[in-house]
Each structure stands twice: as C-alpha cells, then as structure tokens.
Amino acid sequence: MAKKKIALLTGGGDAPGLNAVIYTLVRACHSMFDCEMIGYKFGYRGMYLNEFVKLDRNSTSGILHRGGSILYNSNKDNLFNFAVEENGKIVKKDVSGIAIDNMKNEGVDTLVVLGGDGTLTSARDFFRKGINVIGVPKTIDNDLPATESTFGFDTAVNIVAENLGRLHTTAESHHRIIVVEVMGRSAGWICLHAGIAGSADVIIIPEIPYTVDGIVRKIEERDAAGKPFTIVAVTEGAAGEGGVPIVDTIVPGSPDAERFGGVAKYIREQIEARIDTDKHEVRHCVLGHIQRGGDTSPADRILSARYGFKAAEMIRDGEFGKMVCLRNGKMDSVTLEEVLGRGETGETAKGGAKTVDPKGELVKVARAMGISFAEK
Fold first, then answer.
1. Is 35 within 8 Å of 8 (Cβ atoms)?
2. pLDDT by residue for the chain (376 residues), tens digit each?
3. Are 240 and 198 in contact (CB under 8 A)?
C-alpha cells in the first residue's frame, strides 16, 4: 500500500471525546499502514487558510482524557457559503475549491471530519467534489438517528447530574425552588438522563409540553409531604403547550443559528407569580458550557476510541463518503447521503433528529420514581 497522507479536522461545537478520537485514530492509522497525518486548525477555516499541525504519537500524547479539541473548533465556516471581502463589501462565496487545492498541494488524499450536522453536510459536499471523506459524528445532545450513541453525551450527563446534586443540598438548606437549564436543544436526552440520576423533582423536555401549573402542583405536593424544596431540570429547547422555544440569540453563519436560552428564567418568573414567595424563594441556574468542558468521562473515552479505531479501518479499506456509526452495540458505517439527505435535490435524511419517546422506558421509569413532567 502506498503511503497515505491523512488530514483531520474538528468542526462545530466542542465535545468531550474529540481528543480521544484523535488520539486513537492517529495511533491506529500508524499501526495499520504507512502514513503521515495533519490536523487542520479551527475546522474548515484551517483548510481554507492552509493552517495545520502535524499529528503523530508525540503531538497527541496525553490528550486521551482532555475535553475540547487540540485542533480547535469553529461552527461558522461553511466553505460552500463563506464570507469574504470584495471591493470593501462582505459577500458569500463558494471557496471550497481553494480548500481542495490546498489539500492537493499538501498531498492529502483522505479527510476525516469530526462534527455535527453542519460540519458533516460540508463533508458530504466535499465527497461529491471527489475528496476521500470519512465522517465521525459529534454531539453531546445524542440526537443523531444514524448512531445509537455519540461521545460527549455521557460526560455531559455526569456533569449535569453532579450539579443537580450540589443544587439539591443548597435548595434543601434554604427551602428554595431552583430551576436548572440544561443543554440539548430540541432533544431531552441530557435532561432526562441527568434528571433521573441527579434526583430532579421535575424534568421538562421538548418532547413533553409542560405547564407552569404542573410545576406548581409538584411543588405543593412536596410541601404537603414535608419536602419544602424542589429541583426543576429543564432542557433549553423546551416549550409549553402550543408554545415555541425561547431564542436567546441568533448567530448568522452558524448551522444552528438560533441559540436557545432563557427558559429557566422564564419558568422562575412564572413560578414566582403563582406561589407564596415568603414561603419559598425561587432561583434559576444556567449550567451552560460547563456541560461540555473539563475531562472526558471514562465511558466517553472508550466510545471515542471505538469511533477512532473504526475510522482508521475505513481509511484502510477505502470506505469513503461514509460516517462511522454505532449499531446494535457494534461499530459500523453509513453513507453521508443517508445521514444528511441530498441537499439541493430536495431529498432529506430519513427520520430527522432522534428525540425522547414520551411513552418510552426512561419516561416510565422517571414517573415511577415520582418525577413530574409538569404536564397539564
């Protein structure tokens, strides 16, 4: 086999486990075949600017446990619709050809892309232009239907569950109601798992419309049982009956331009309007990027290693235009076209996002434990 030159990049938001994928992929590739490896900095922007670092055993030593990405992340650099300055004005252009020329000039013959929907959509489009591409799915939200589990999810659940436990003790001490806002966008996986593990009293997820009256009922129920404090865990993209999620900011150029935020504050204010605040103080807490920072959990390190090893096998076997996935507990692959759809042809990916089944096992478990979903 001729010597390969492989490029990696990490696009979109950061996630615990990215470094573990890089760590394993670099070692697996070097053990399987003769190769050189580089990593583009700041995702696709690095391809466009031809900014990269050498990846080998030495440069990736000691990163297995670390969160974030040694290659850095960017979620605003779609090279097929990239902002450039022309004649003093900012215009959007397809600059993917420049990135491809940079790759060819460096002798890169394979590109491994670690990212979410937006990053992998560009990976699909580069494959259509003749680039040997392999995708590795990344999201802490665990909402990708093409794979059973994504790395970063377990770490996020651990962090949220730990913080719910910490808030539990201060809420009990002051007889407070604390509303905790959790990441996940329009999928309630993090909130549901962490809410159960962290002993939340109310779990609010996008898949089950909530009512403030439902939350208040749970507060009154706990008061009557001699538990004058309540922890409410809410997914950032949750909405009440007939409502829409609260958008905090809009970030132009990002695949997820609408950034949810503010639901915990809103719920706090609504609770305050319905209860005796002399009896209970109500607070809200937004965990934010704490959920995706710090060291990667052992479970995510192992899962990431499996993703990285499978990607190396796919490079060796020439399985391009595909994404690594977990199916029936085993590592597998699926075409990027199947995962993302066909874009301009009008066809879309099957199934949409993977969301919580309101009648699923975990929801039933939570209900049996006495957790409320604040329904009408």
1. no
2. 678 999 999 999 899 999 999 999 999 999 999 999 999 999 999 999 999 999 999 999 999 999 999 999 988 889 999 999 888 899 999 999 999 999 999 999 999 999 998 899 999 999 999 999 999 999 999 998 899 999 999 999 999 999 999 999 999 999 999 999 999 989 999 999 999 999 999 999 999 999 999 999 999 999 999 999 999 999 999 987 777 877 766 666 655 667 788 899 999 999 999 998 888 999 999 999 999 999 999 999 999 999 999 999 999 999 999 999 999 999 999 999 999 875 543 344 445 789 999 999 999 999 999 999 999 8
3. no
Q: Which residues 6+ apart lie within 8 Å of 370 measured at CB?
A: 201
pTM higher than the cut 0.90: yes
Per-position DSSP letters for 6-37, written without gaps between them = EEEEE-SS--TTHHHHHHHHHHHHHHHS-EEE
- Whether residue 251 contacts residue 259, with contact meaning beta carbons closer than 8 Å, is answered with yes
256 is catalytic: no
Catalytic residue among 141, 143, 154, 201: 141
